Amino acid sequence: MIKLPAARLEPAAGVLRRLRAALEAGVQALARTCARSGRLDTDALDAQQVASFELAWAAAELLAAETGLAAACTPDGVQDDPLRTPLALLYTVEAVVSVLERLETVYAESGLETAALRALRDDPEWLTLRREAGSAQAWQAAGQAVAQSDADVGGLPLDESHALARDSFRRFAQEVVAPQAEAIHRHDLTVPETLLQPMREMGVFGLAIPQRLGGSAPDGRDDTLLMVVVTEALSEGSLAAAGSLITRPEILSRALMAGGTPAQQAHWLPRIAAGEPLCAIAITEPDHGSDVASLTLRATRVPGGWRLDGAKTWCTFAGKAGLLMVVARTDPDRSLGHKGLSVLLVEKPSFDTHAFDCTQPGGGRLVGRAIPTIGYRGMHSFDLAFEGWHVPDTHVVGGEGGLGRGFYLTMAGMVGGRMQTAARACGVMRAALRAAIRYSGERRVFGQPLAGLALTQAKLARMAARLAACRTLTYCLARAVDAGDGRMEASLVKLLACRSAEYVTREALQLHGGMGYAEETAVSRHFVDARVLSIFEGAEETLALKVIARSLMERALAAPGEPERVKPAAGQPERAVLAARAGA
Predict the structure, then answer these.
(1) Residue numbers annotated as active site
(2) How many Å apart are CA 25 and CA 100, to the nearest integer?
(3) How many CB atoms lie within 10 A of CB 546?
(4) First vs last Cα of the chain: how many Å apart?
(5) What is the DSSP string of 48-85?
(6) What domains are defined for the chain?
(7) Contact between 413 and 255 (Cβ < 8 Å)
(8) DSSP 8-class letter at 241
């Protein structure tokens, strides 16, 4: 039996409140270090990248702990999930240890005295919490309970429609996706129509598109939570062959809804929702990575449209896709930075091959080559070369009014894309944890089941606590995003969940021993697939430095000493968690 009573929640919340105050002090001190005349200075920020990186991670881990405890604090004390409270407390202990260590760097680099951190380390409530909730006995007890579960930890109660969607897509992932996933991965196949067509029929490509335009989102509001539960379920079957298929139409759809003309919305959105054509996003370039403002792909005005010349890379699904969302420089003045970028829609034939070479009647050429990768196979990421490729004026998103707005239109889809990536990470983690639970229950070592060993139980508990923290935060933020909040936190949960997926899949593979290293075992695929999550949809370094840390410090400079409260997600207790909220 798990002996971590709910009575421990209030002392744990007290520890987190004091840690939040310490974090806010660190944010303000680092902001002062990086400011010149009351504004953040680029050179000063670059000089403090190490401290800023640690600050972003501290904010992520702390918010996850706060959110997990808040979800466990139900008004009537009745838990929907018997593992919610013990896992929330276990994660809290680990988070406090980590955040204190990260804040040491922040304080040292910003010249702040560390007395407050030392006081926290010696706090009697914290020492008691760590001794009881962080003991080997507590981890083992939680691990024994996790071993009897189906790894369904950390999710929040859903209404009937969302629960139905989750269950339907979980069945599809288990019965249709998973049986094909190994062959797609091992033979480096393109996602086949046997998966794509059922997903078209289930409406997965229109989750961000309003019903009036052929999608499944409610008219007049978003349903990010639906996107999260569907993405998570599909990613359990396969990240590359199912879970990631929704991201590209999500980003393009939101760009069209944010800045497309009425004619463009009416023409393209119903088609995207139907999955005909499939979409790809061409943003990254060989020399610029996540630095969108420095993109150089040239779009030169010609009679009737634009001529594209240049290269893109890491364009996922570009072979199979019939429509590319291309961010190009329509103004040759490089000094304009992101203000010289526009979004162009490029139509092309669909290819199942790993390379393609297509030409237009006027002589334009587009060449693509799939990049060999260690994982994330099925969709394939392509290098693209445009040579005089013609794009008609009608395919500039927003028309003449959309010129120069490419950066903003791209960012309109990134919040959803990052929430979706967090959901993908949660799906991969759950698949890996389920595999570890099954294998450790079946495998016998030294005369007893692997799951009966104390270290195995502790590993399962740590994996489950990390998954629960990420899932709870993802679900809460999905509701917050739909309410108009949580833009910066979408980057924060993406940061945390993706790195967590690396840890959980690594531990799951380790528990499989030699079999985990065999390609025939699904956990090996989960491991190599998870590694890409911290790289795409915003590399973790870019998110930590350019979005999270910068936003925290900008807010501190704007209102020093006045931490802002994130609104509790729908259905959550009034114990709101503290966090910085700023536009990503």
Answers:
(1) 537
(2) 13
(3) 19
(4) 44
(5) THHHHHHHHHHHHHHHHHHHHHHHH--TT---SSTTHH
(6) 1-134+540-584 (1.20.140.10), 152-538 (1.20.140.10)
(7) yes
(8) I
* Residue closest to 471 by CA, chosen among 503, 521, 530, 429: 429
- Helical ranges in 373-486 per DSSP H: 406-442, 454-482
CA dihedral 443, 448, 454, 460 (to 10 degrees): 20
Using CA atoms of 378, 381, 387, 392 in order, give the dihedral in degrees to the nearest 10: 70
Name residue, tokens 């209404």.
159
Q: At CA 63, angle to CA 48 and CA 539, rounded to 5? A: 50
Q: Are 498 and 421 in contact (CB under 8 A)?
A: yes
Distance from C-alpha of 245 to C-alpha of 278, rounded to nearest angstrom: 9
The pLDDT value given to residue 575 = 31
Please give the Cα distance from 106 to 58 (Å, whole number): 10
Averages of pLDDT over runs of 10 residues in the chain (584 residues) are 60 95 96 94 95 98 96 68 92 97 97 93 94 92 93 91 94 96 94 95 93 89 92 96 91 93 96 95 78 77 95 93 95 83 96 95 94 92 96 96 92 85 96 97 90 95 97 94 86 96 98 94 96 89 94 88 42 32 26
Whether the Cβ atoms of residue 335 and residue 346 lie closer than 8 Å to each other = no
Residue 349, classified by CB atoms within 10 Å of its CB into exposed (0-12), middle (13-18) or buried (19+), is exposed
Residue in 318, 198, 331 with CA at minimum distance from that of residue 248:
318
Cis peptide before 568 (omega within 30 of 0): no
**Rounded to an integer, what distance in angstroms lies between the CA atom of residue 354 and that of residue 381?**
9
Q: Which tokens is 296 given?
A: 């150089």
Cβ atoms 310, 285 nearer than 8 A: yes
Strand partners, 392: 305
Angstrom distance (rounded) from CA 123 to CA 389: 65
| pLDDT at residue number 79 | 62
Quote the pTM value: 0.91
Evaluate whether 427 touches 525 at the Cβ level (below 8 Å). Answer: no
Cβ pair 505, 457 in contact under 8 A: no
The owner of tokens 């999905």 is 478
> Residue 442, exposed/middle/buried by CB under 10 A (0-12, 13-18, 19+)?
exposed
In angstroms, rounded to a whole number, what is the distance separating the alpha carbons of residues 310 and 184? 31
CA atoms within 13 A on the CB side of 551: 22
Beta-carbon count within 10 A of 277 CB: 20
Give the residue carrying structure tokens 């009036």. 212
Helix-strand-coil split of the chain, %, nearest 5: 60, 10, 30
